[in-house]
Amino acid sequence: MSGDNGSAGTGEATGFDEIDILWISEGMSCDGDTVSLTAADRPALEDVLLGLVPGLPKVNLHNKVLSPTLGGEEFLAPFRAAVRGELEPFVLVIEGSVPNQNIIEGDGYWTSFGNDPETGEPLTLNWWIDRLAPKAWAVMTAGTCAAYGGIHAMAGNPTGCMGLADYLGWDFRSRAGLPVVNVPGCPIQPENFMETLGWMLQHAAGTAPAPPLDHMLRPQWLFGRTVHEGCDRAAYYEQGDFAMDYNSPKCQVKIGCWGPVVNCDVPKRGWMAGVGGCPNVGGICIGCTMPGFPDAFMPFMDEPTGGALSATLIKPYGALVRRLRGITNTAVNREPKWHHNGPDLTSGYDPTWRSRGTHAPRKTRATTRTKRRELT
What Pfam families does the entry give (predicted)? Predict the structure, then answer.
């Protein structure tokens, strides 16, 4: 799938004045993505909901943690209306990984969202996804669990959990002609999600094209670079200077950091109001935005695969670079010799321009050159 996934013109027309967001966090999760979302301020969720962001349609959010309703059927009303085809357009957001109901023999379910009004039996997350996703103008995931399965989809788990694109199919397209839009993170970096949602809402309003996604359906502009490329410790790696404990400000590759191979913008963006982010505050990167998380990055505190080889290869080069830079640093930490309070001008100033008809005597120019040589 190319970077122009879900380009405009392949789905339902845009230009909506009002849109609903149906947010279901009954996937296998901890609701941490919703909690993280409340820390966003560029744009802030409340600014979007209050219509304070120019160019966006009116937004109605239905999220159980942030809902002003009393819960129960009052909260479920818009979800049931959407199933009946009476609520459109809407964006479906799934939080938490999707379990495999097909591996359950007999009765039972992994997770549910409301009950069937006729039978009183719980309605599974899968039931809702099956009915809402085909009707949704767009489908998004919030967090790594919903995007790729995350912790609940680890090897050996009994639920058969997976990401939403695995469940719907990677060729799924919404009413707008968009694939599933994944915003991974454990939890989501709040601005990353709100920025992506803002782009989606501008697309819904007809004022922007569809957001560009990478081959794992992540926003390219957010996940197109590695942690290492934005890390303020990266120069230590280049110089072969590695931390051996967690109190050091140096590169943490040898004590468990996977930053050189993980796609994430947190070191540059920070976490809240531009502050924080794992390596920025002394933490290692454990790859929580990646499709292979957590299995591919465990044990978390061990040196990453290939870390010993890359560190060994970079050391001779790094040692030479450190030495050469040290020499240059010493040289440029000195003031020029002509900075003094004496009576002579010793900066080497020797103007080549003379007013017409006047020429400095040859002896004077020679004397100036002699002085300049003596200074150098």
Answer: NiFe_hyd_SSU_C (PF14720), Oxidored_q6 (PF01058)
Residue positions forming the annotated binding site for [3Fe-4S] cluster: 285, 288
State in words which class domain 225-330 has: few secondary structures
Tell me: pLDDT of 136 over 50: yes
Instruction: Sketch the domain layout of the chain as residue ranges.
Output: 18-223, 225-330
Q: Which amino acids are annotated as binding site, given as ranges?
A: 30, 145, 186, 228, 231, 251, 257, 285, 288
Assigned CATH for 18-223: 3.40.50.700
Helical H segments across 227-306, by residue range: 227-230, 234-238, 266-269
* Tokens found for residue 74: 């009052």
Q: What is the pLDDT of residue 374?
A: 53
Interval 164-179: pLDDT, tens: 999 999 999 999 999 9
7's tokens: 């380009």
DSSP classification of residue 221? H
Residues in the chain: 376
Preceding amide of 294 cis, omega within 30: yes
CA count, 13 A, side-chain hemisphere, 356: 0
Residue 350, judged by CB atoms within 10 A of its CB (0-12, 13-18, 19+), counts as exposed
For residue range 229-256, list pLDDT tens digits in order.
999 999 998 899 999 999 999 999 999 9
| Residue ranges of the binding site for [4Fe-4S] cluster | 30, 145, 186, 228, 231, 251, 257
Q: Coil, strand or helix: which one is 146? A: helix
Q: How far is CA 350 from the centre of its chain?
A: 56
What average pLDDT does the chain have?
Answer: 90
pTM for the full model? Answer: 0.84
